[in-house]
Amino acid sequence: MTVSASPVPPGPLLDVAELAKRFVVGSKRGLVARALSFSKPAAPPSLLHAVDDVSFTVGRGETVGLVGESGCGKSTLVRLINRLLDPTSGSIRLGGAELSDFRASSFAGNPHRARIQMVFQDAGDSLNPRYTAADAIADPLRRLKRMSGAQLKARVEALADMTGLPRELLPRFPHQLSGGQKARVGIARAIAVSPELLILDEPTAALDVSVQVVILQLLQQLKRELGMSYLFVSHDLNVVRLLCDRVLVMYLGKIVEHGPAAEVFANPSHPYTRALISAIPQADPERRVDRLRLGGEPRSPIDPNPNVCRFYGRCPKGTPRCAEEMPLLRPAGAARQVACHFA
Amino acid sequence: MTAVPTLAVDDLSVEFRTRSGVVKVLEHVGFRVDRGEKVALVGESGSGKSVTAFAVMGILDAAGRVTSGRVMFGGSDLLALSEHDLAEQRGRELSMIFQNPRTALNPIRRVGRQIADVLVRHGGATRNDAPRAAIEMLKKVRIPDPERRAEAYPFELSGGMCQRIMIAIALACRPALLIADEPTTGLDVTTQAVIMDLIGELAAESGMATIFITHDLALAAEYCDRIVVMHAGHVVEAAPARDLFSHPRHPYAAKLLAATPGETVALEHLASIPGGLPDLRRADLPPCRYAERCERRTDACAQPLPQRTVGDGHVVACWSPL
Lengths: 343, 322
Known about the structure:
The structure holds two protein chains of two kinds.
Chain A: H1 2-5, E1 14-25, H2 31-36, E2 46-58, E3 63-67, H3 74-81, E4 89-94, E5 97-98, E6 116-119, H4 133-145, H5 149-162, H6 179-191, E7 197-201, H7 209-226, E8 229-233, H8 237-243, E9 246-251, E10 254-260, H9 261-266, H10 271-278, E11 330-331, E12 337-338
Helix pairs in contact in A: 4-5, 4-6, 5-6, 6-7
Chain B: E1 7-18, E2 21-33, E3 38-42, H1 49-57, E4 64-73, E5 76-77, H2 83-89, E6 94-97, H3 101-104, H4 111-122, H5 130-140, H6 146-149, H7 159-171, E7 177-181, H8 189-206, E8 209-214, H9 217-223, E9 226-231, E10 234-240, H10 241-246, H11 251-259, E11 308-311, E12 314-316
Parallel strand pairs in B: 3-8, 3-9, 6-7, 7-8
Antiparallel strand pairs in B: 1-2, 1-4, 4-5, 9-10, 10-12, 11-12
Helix pairs in contact in B: 4-5, 5-7
């Protein structure tokens, strides 16, 4: 492939800058009504700010965790980077190539497609029930690498070996596989085309703890062997802590804290991160801390006031200043950034 | 009052008849839940946690059959009750939060009405009072803007909100026993904390007993008083949460703890549990269903399973406990 043959450019693998995605929502009037009311000037539509001015990088061979509660924009951000959605503005550079120039609708046929792959949340739901494990793993190889015949068969078997899927399971359909085996098929399919960036969306959420351990260890080992970078999305903070070098904390479309995982977990700066970390269930009674309870309601992501901190109203700190001036993400220590007036 | 447990499950065995043979899903399962107590049932998928709950509620699948045991609740054996009497108990005295709120809620009925339905059927509310009482319930489970949300259909609400609607339905009639089957799976840790606290408050306030089904040992240890560990349809260990965490005695319970990610362990030190659950259709199932995965197996394991009391309220079904 021409793309992977080029020399490795310097700098981070993934460089996301000022990325934003706004969805138009809530126009009560239908198309016809709007067309007929041409005499009145149309009010601008409401916009849901799903991802708002997000910038970060993922280095080569690095694992970056993305955490935040549901509705915070994690999935939208992942879909933008994975080029399944078109951004409203901003740039997504992968190893020097600008990906936001390509339309999501035609990205499946783009040579860059093989460079970003994804392991989906529920291994069961993301496998085609009419494809055998071998078909599922072969599919991206056929489409993106034009492989066929003996070469394809050899590659599928090699991938099964790499992901610890017994070869005799390759002719089986998803319903004949256990949860852990389906997870292995999902991973084998994602790494089949040798991606540089692998996006993992809650890869172990549906698995038992004993199986989860094996899959996490497999992911760690594959990263070492294949030199991939991971963007790891999860709300299981205990898992993020195990796997990630750096962590990004998102709240209502914005990154509120960013830094080395060990430091952020040991000493969270943003009040939201603190609440999140104190809510992690702790089996050991000796290590249990007083939970920081969040009161109030999350602010609406629809037409948010650009001058009010997104966390205002739920934040235990909240002062009048937070309602007048949006805190920007600013450096806090050597490798950390936090968006709070008081951090 | 204190001496009589709210629920006592004794020697419960359940089998499922399938085309490929009889599956012995539960065998001699026993545990008790006292008033105001929170007991966790933990184990891998397939360990029989949910089947235990379904058997207690009398809602086993048609293929399932209770072959032995008693489920004592409020002075009567639930397994011996007629369907009519059981229906009177369910909803009012016995209540359940199901695993998947999206499929457990009625998709074509407004959520406020679904809560009102329970209040009218079991809570003695009239059709006129019920909507207001339903909104009160929504407030209690911290649904923002409850008046408006009561008018919503399940598909219009997020997963976390549907979960809270399920909880509102289950708690509407202040049951004496709540069975919560993975009530917080798929929720954020912050929402999970809110919901677990809410269940805890109700338990403390009204003396509600709770059976909490989960595979998250850390969650069980943090929120429950006692933990019952199940493996392949057997109760292998039952202990106060603190004791189980600090000194697990059954090899399986110890492995489960060692596989749970926590604050202090590195990924390399987490250990998986070798092997899988045995095929429960087998005729030659060993007395200990963990034996084939167990590193501590001895010749003694061929005998029928013991029930050894190893501490205060701490029972382990193992011939060579740790």
